[in-house]
Amino acid sequence: MVGAVETVITPAMVNGTVEILAVVAKPLPPVVAQNGSPIEAEGEGDAKAKKNREIVLGKNVHITCLPVTEPEANDELTGEKEAYIASVLARYQNTLINRTKHHLGYPYNLDFDYGALTQLQRFSINNLGDPFIESNYGVHSRQFEVGVLDWFARLWEIEKNEYWGYITNCGTEGNLHGILVGREMLPDGILYASRESHYSVFKAARMYRMECVKVDTLVSGEINCADFKIKLLANKDKPAIINVNIGTTVKGAVDDLDLVIQTLEKSGFSRDRFYIHCDGALFGLMMPFVKRARKVSFKKPIGSVSASGHKFIGCPMPCGVQITRIEHINALSSNVEYLASRDTTIMGSRNGHAPIFLWYTLNKKGYKGFQKEVQKCLKNAIYLKDCLRKAGISAMLNELSSTVVFERPKDEEFVRRWQLACEGNIAHVVVMPNVTMEKLDAFLNELIEKRSTWYEDGSIAPPPCIEAEIGKENCACALHKC
Amino acid sequence: MVGAVETVITPAMVNGTVEILAVVAKPLPPVVAQNGSPIEAEGEGDAKAKKNREIVLGKNVHITCLPVTEPEANDELTGEKEAYIASVLARYQNTLINRTKHHLGYPYNLDFDYGALTQLQRFSINNLGDPFIESNYGVHSRQFEVGVLDWFARLWEIEKNEYWGYITNCGTEGNLHGILVGREMLPDGILYASRESHYSVFKAARMYRMECVKVDTLVSGEINCADFKIKLLANKDKPAIINVNIGTTVKGAVDDLDLVIQTLEKSGFSRDRFYIHCDGALFGLMMPFVKRARKVSFKKPIGSVSASGHKFIGCPMPCGVQITRIEHINALSSNVEYLASRDTTIMGSRNGHAPIFLWYTLNKKGYKGFQKEVQKCLKNAIYLKDCLRKAGISAMLNELSSTVVFERPKDEEFVRRWQLACEGNIAHVVVMPNVTMEKLDAFLNELIEKRSTWYEDGSIAPPPCIEAEIGKENCACALHKC
Q1: Region A113-142 average pLDDT
Q2: How far is A149 from chain B, CA to nearest CA, in Å?
Q3: Span A238-278, pLDDT tens digits
Q4: DSSP line for A388-421
């Protein structure tokens, strides 16, 4: 799962027309973007333009831009520039408050209070390089970082002296690192990942020049292990590097880790011929708090786990955690021929504030606090799904997931207002700790009220059948509702 | 240049002995680490241990760690946890103040005041994906990001509608992106980089499975174009991807971009057979403000330029800027076969606070402000070099550079106290805007005083000859001083 619904390539619309400053690639299906991507530029909804929707690659359209202006010589006297900056920031803050209030589609916990850490903003805190190796740069926060890593090591059941890890910039960096470690362990390994894996997994394959095999998924979004087996057997001569999703981006589906391991073993892959990276961007942190969930644990033959810090925990900026086995890092480092040998992280300079934010929340909430929040999220997700179904709207909720998938609202303005992430005919809400029942009620009331107007005109097609996406039993279209 | 002196692999020392929890690779020369890395864990200086110095790879030694502890049930009543966290943070803040005060070795401007932005810390600001394409996630800062990018585009002389770029997490991400763009443009291209290039360049070659040829350097640290030519001619059948350093990590040397281009042309490489990435982590931003400097400009046949935001500008967390030509991004995107096609940045989720910090400083200081600061830095760097030479200490300062290279102080405690970056027998101070003449005087006085004691005992070897590193004319060893 993870970095979650992050890619977006949409046309830039300026004054209702699609402005193309660059090469235009293959057209997108109407009102659809892969990866649950939203579709259009803010404030634009021209129906004609929608029809002309195309992917514009490498676009550079200055839809919204706050230009940097050169200060005047007398600025300090007049205070004009100061006043301008202050007014921009005040307006921006209002936008942020409003946008934070109406947010449901991304798995970010927007409910945090880091007031106690405000004073640290005046320091340039940088954990450059390996977290376990002191740098001469003294303004760092390694002591917090290692504390946080230990916590995650305990969560995923690996001994302190057996793991290696670091705080990343986001879920993508965790996946890039995990897959790189896998490739260095098994240089001619093939990367296997389900179609519903996060796009960063496929990006890694491309960056690293790895052969990549996509595996089919079940309706739930989980990897289809029958198909996985067929593909493994077709490539028996090469080792396997597998990305296992602990919560897919769109449907919040959790791949069956035990079944994946079983499939590998049954297909004749011994433990030295496979490497498993668990992409646990969101659920990697939630699952351990659900008693009946399959465990993500280093007691199983997995190589690495990554999770995001700005999602379930909540953080002002994106960040993540990557944990792997220490012997893999040794292999990674000793394999290197040149300078890179002392280089264990993907990035060089690393944000030293992020570990402090995480450390603070982990200390304040603890296991028990997270457990309570996970339970609340799962309960509220069930509530949302039930209300949608009662209102006759197609909806699906995977077991142990807080991602409610439902019929894509017809009105793009509504989608934008609630910042829903969409893919094809489906949208989703990810119920995070900041999503209260009251917020869900407000959303539901608005959806139900607006929806009744979307389909009242007979000239418009009825709500689509989304059996293919969420299964017959969850579909409430004209054909399936009875 | 840049991410600058960031890698460090040193032994972890616990109670004065080298603790090795992992595989030990090849031994390091005494008191030396590549990449200007410091050598030991804070607070340790055992001479015996120093002799046993070795690289420990994939180490996981919990030298300093603030553990996360589970809150007690009655924490809210007693307030104990709250008090514990507050005391940790207060102590930490004192350390940061002290460490910020005594800092000279890394090219970070620690002098900034972002008090006006404090209120934004409570928002989860995320510019996921491409900066020019709106995401449905509303809590972003693209309007600031594009404003900052426009400013850099102007600085490096490329039209608004001809560039593409984004705010990165650090200099390394810029290099990873620039070299990836180069590889996608010229898939079988060989990567050429001088030996003194930043380690992230060689990391990129490894990650991307590219052939990489190291080019010799001059004593100044600049790329040796005679050697470059020989290596180009030996590989004439393959296109060339070149990393040009706008300020190397250790010596602050600026590769001669014009001569590199000339060498390519003279060696028979037409413009469609080479791609130049300029690693301008520090000087990419300073050079344009020095009138007599060779220009980094997109009017020349270069493909991309990256710079760091936390260095000369100053920022609480690492960040950077990457600018490339829009047509390269089109090529990058349309080449892709699978999902990754809509993916233009290396990371997925992206820190939305960093662009606001940069926007704020650019607006406040402007071209004129930076120009003034660059001049001050160059002037202070000359002052430092002159004082060192007057005191009989070997020292070098490249023209147009603010990185003063000098004889490595004998005492590791002193190196650590001033957070100097070292490599072999040399150390450096990077004069940033926060490095005042008073600070330099304090440093010089302490160095000169301590140094007189390091060499007074006849049993210790005299100050080393560093002719090889900085040239005969800059060396003040017994042999060269007269």
Answers
A1: 91
A2: 9
A3: 999 999 999 999 999 999 999 999 999 999 999 999 999 99
A4: HHHTT--EEE-TT--EEEEEPPS-HHHHHHTT-E
User: Chain centroid to CA A161: how far?
Assistant: 29
Task: Identify the DSSP state of B314.
Answer: I
Q: Say if the Cβ atoms of A121 and B126 lie within 8 Å.
A: no
pLDDT in tens, B261-292: 999 999 999 999 999 999 998 888 888 888 88
Which stretch of A62-71, B109-118, B428-437 has the lowest confidence by average pLDDT?
A62-71
DSSP, residue by residue, B261-293: HHHHHHTT--GGGEEEEEE-TTHHHHGGGSTTS
Active site residue A200: no
> Are B317 and A365 a contacting pair at CB < 8 A?
no
Query: In chain B, what residues touch A339 (CB-CB under 8 Å)?
Result: 34-35, 199, 202-203
| pLDDT over 80 (residue A134) | no
Total-model pTM:
0.87
* CATH of B120-364 among 3.40.50.2020, 3.40.50.10610, 3.40.640.10, 3.50.50.60: 3.40.640.10
Chain A residues in contact with B318 (beta carbon < 8 A): 126, 128, 347, 349-351
Nearest to A64 among B67, B135, B143 (CB): B143
Partner-chain contact A339 B35, CB within 8 Å: yes
pLDDT of residue A63: 65
Q: Which chain A residue is nearest to residue B183, measuring alpha carbons?
A: A207
Catalytic residue among A141, A220, A304, A401: A401
How many angstroms separate the CA atoms of B215 and B158, rounded?
Answer: 29
Query: What fold characterizes domain A366-470?
Result: Aspartate Aminotransferase, domain 1 (3.90.1150)
- Domain positions in chain B are 7-101, 120-364, 366-470
A22 chain-B contacts, CB cut-off 8 A? 326-327, 329-330
B288 and chain A: CB distance < 8 Å anywhere? Answer: no
- Condensed to tens digits (0 to 9), the pLDDT of residues B216-246 reads 999 999 999 999 999 999 999 999 999 999 9
**How close, in Å, is residue A60 to chain B by CA atoms?**
6
**Separation between Cα atoms, residue B342 and residue B327, nearest integer Å:** 15
Instruction: Determine which helix (DSSP H) or strand (DSSP E) holds B102, and give its type and residue range.
Output: none
Nearest to A118 among B67, B108, B121 (CB): B121
Q: Apex CA B367: angle with CA B362 and CA B372, to 5°?
A: 110
pLDDT at residue A301, rounded to an integer: 98
**Of A347, A364, A348, whose CA–CA distance to A356 is shortest?**
A364
pLDDT(A173) > 70: yes
Which residue in B115, B317, B347 is closest to A172 by CB distance?
B347
Whole-number Å distance between alpha carbons of B175 and A481 = 54
B 61-80 residues with CB < 8 A to A: 61-71
ipTM metric: 0.87
Q: Percent of chain B at pLDDT above 70?
A: 84
B380-426 pLDDT tens trace: 999 999 999 999 999 999 988 999 999 999 999 999 999 998 888 99
Among A191, A223, A227, A195, which Cα is nearest to A206's?
Answer: A191
B375 touches chain A (CB under 8 A): no
Strands A17-19 and A163-168: unpaired
Which positions in chain A touch B365 (Cβ < 8 Å)? Answer: 71
A37, A198 Cβ separation under 8 angstroms: no
Interchain contact B479–A (C-beta under 8 A): no
Per-residue pLDDT at B409 = 95
Give tens-digit pLDDT for B81-135: 889 999 999 999 999 999 999 999 888 999 899 999 999 999 999 998 888 887 7
Q: Which residue is closest to A118 within chain B, CA to CA?
A: B118
Residue of B nearest to A9 (CA): B342
